[in-house]
Amino acid sequence: MENRPKYEAQLNDFDPQVRREALDKLLDLVERRLIALPEPVSSVNLHSHTFYSYNGYGYSPTAFAWKARLAGLAVAGVVDFDVLDAVDEFLEAARRLGLKACAGLETRIFVPEYGDREINSPGEPGISYHMGAGFTSSSVKNGGFLAGMKTAAQSRNRAILERVNPYLAPAELDYERDVLPLTPNGNATERHLCMAYDARAAEVFPEDAARAKFWAEKLKEGEDRIQGILNDPAALQG
């Protein structure tokens, strides 16, 4: 249908102008009744991350708004980790699509008093996830606080990489070269580290058998199990 797959793919381009023009084209198809948007149902999704932190499908804020509208969601919301980068674009796309929307962020803190107990992050004693919702703009009065959150998150990632690189040699990563390009505004997450290590191992060990042996040893898993998920990025990175 008149380049619909092409336009939908362009919704995830890192260039915001390309995303904007792709939505224009899709809305034109809607206007011409070549794409039908369903009536909203009762389902909602108020907790989605975009590619400004990490999205397993690489969805931009505009792409998530489009997918939510196609699914007939009553309300949709984005909550990227540590940044408000998606807010303006998502709310604008939602407005154009007639989608009820909300926007915020998600972050995590360490609570020393509960350092030996799980709070709401399985397997991570002392870690508590917190949400902020109801933002109407990516611009906030205390912008320095947000900048500090992003800086702290990136420092944590770099520290993880420094510890993991020696263990995963020869599939080491360079943060600037291998990790930061995976997200538009440099707000990489641990998930991006997993993605980058997966890709780097595929470069170092192009043969499936050698790569399966590498991951089986490093992850302390059976080779048969690794073979079964070797080309399933979500399963292997998980």
- What value does the average pLDDT take? 94
Beta-strand residue fraction: 5-15%
- What radius of gyration results from the CA coordinates? 20 Å
Task: Give the oligomer, counting copies of the same chain as homo and different chains as hetero.
Answer: single chain
Question: Low-confidence parts, pLDDT < 50 over ≥5 residues?
Answer: none
Question: End-to-end span in angstroms?
Answer: 36 Å
Largest β sheet strand count, sense and barrel closure? 4 strands, mixed
Give the CA-based shape. globular
Quick structural summary:
The protein has ten helices and four strands, in the order ααβαβαββαααααα. By secondary structure, the chain is α/β, with parallel strands linked by helices. Helix 3 (61-70) links the parallel strand 1 and strand 2.
